[in-house]
UniProtKB/TrEMBL annotation:
Molecular function in Gene Ontology: calcium ion binding
Family matches, as Pfam families: He_PIG
Organism: Candidatus Dojkabacteria bacterium
Record-annotated Cadherin domain positions: 213-353
Gene3D superfamilies xrefs: Immunoglobulins
Gene Ontology cellular component terms for the protein in this record: membrane
Keyword set includes Glycoprotein: no
CDD domains: Cadherin_repeat (cd11304), FN3 (cd00063)
Entry protein name: Cadherin repeat domain-containing protein
Amino acid sequence: MNNQYNKIIGLTLVAFFMLVSGSPVSAVTKGNDEVYIASPINNAVVTGITQVRYFLKEADKADIPYQIDLFSSACSVNGPYFGTIASGSKTASANGAYFTDLWDTDGPIQNRSSIPDGFYCVRICATFRELPNNFYSLCDKHTVAVGNTNRPPVINSQPPNSSIKVGEDFTYQVQATDPDGHKLTYVIDKGGDFFLYMNRDTGRIYTEKTITTAGSYPITITVSDGFGGVVKQFFTLNVTEPDLPPAAINFVVPGKDTVITKNNNKLSWNIERFNPTSILLSYSKDEGKNWVQIANLSGSTTSYEWNLQGVETGKYLLRIIATNNEGKTIEKISELFDVTIATTDTGEEAPLITILSPQEEER
């Protein structure tokens, strides 16, 4: 039980020490000797007077000669030597210790009057004793961006539109420039699961999945130059429900080839996306110049048997005017159709006779 308790306490103390000391995962070590740069962190932007904080551990508790050098370009490029930030000797213990040197990132540095903005490699090398007369070096390095005279980028574009409908695509090519010629990085803050994505290198915003939910979405675009220069653009994208097709009246009868007779006089229709309270039914024999009312019907009516009283044989148009409770109306005129009224010589209606061929009679 005591051993388990001591083990738990030991692990807790180790975790606490790592939290307080900030010991990195990638320290440069050999045996019990160790060196690493604590700050500036890798790819940090540095300005003005900056602290270079580093950790040294020497198993033999000896003085450790060290030198902090600056190289042009990022560490991955292996740029040329630019100058020395600091050098000297530090006394470290077997448990190690942190040390700090100040670096004026504006310069001067050695024979250079200033340090231009740009990427640099900060490298610390420490010399350790392996044998009484045998020494070796361990080095750690971090890429930093000097940004003392850096000017922020400028966004030169505006979103093409701020309102789209559900199901539509949205694209926006952000146009930005940097007065110092730095490479720009583009980021969109979309707030959780959203449908817009952004190319970090080109600044193009695009719809990657279908927009299914209407609403107002605040968008923040951040453009950075890698040297501390940042500019933001804010806009709200309003997503609305799609427009419905307009209200419509569709004739079922009459159609293009319909022939209306007294025995075949049923008119029918349907109305879409409109709730009428009344329907006015009219006909015209002169291609719509004059209209004669047939009936004024309730809004729920979808068919009507036309009393052809006084109607002559000929070609006709049928018109429906539907009105809702707000007074709005929609209208539809049918295609031209035939009305056939069979009459006797005395003017009385005669039976409609269909003449069949001999072949049809045999059937």
